[in-house]
Amino acid sequence: GKTEVVQTPGAPAGQQGAAEKVSVGQLLRRFFRFYSQDFDFAREAVCVRQGKRSAPELALPLHIILHADGSTTDVAPSIEDPFD
Questions:
Q1: Closest among 40, 57, 38 to 49, alpha carbons compared
Q2: Is 80 exposed, middle or buried (0-12, 13-18, 19+ CB in 10 A)?
Q3: Which of 5, 49, 7, 4 is closest to 24 using CA atoms?
Q4: Which residues in 15-54 are b (16+ Cβ under 10 Å) and which e?
Q5: Predicted TM-score of the model (pTM)
Q6: pLDDT, tens only, 34-80
Q7: Tens digits of per-residue pLDDT, 57-69?
């Protein structure tokens, strides 16, 4: 399978050095693990423009998911439009 060279998690962005070869499948698995376990959707937004984790801007709408039971809720992902 295809492999990619990625920066080791925790290393500062833009810093050369600690890199490892991982498969595309491993990258996808890490992506899903990060957004399902590490990312706090109630306090963070996905911001491609800034390229870092941060609190959502006040203008970014908060999306609430109402579950089928009619009373349980979760916060949905907030993804900032990089062209705004």
A1: 57
A2: middle
A3: 4
A4: eeeeeeeeeeeeeeeeeeeeeeeeeebeebbbbeeeeeee
A5: 0.59
A6: 988 999 888 888 888 888 888 888 888 888 999 999 999 998 888 88
A7: 888 888 899 999 9
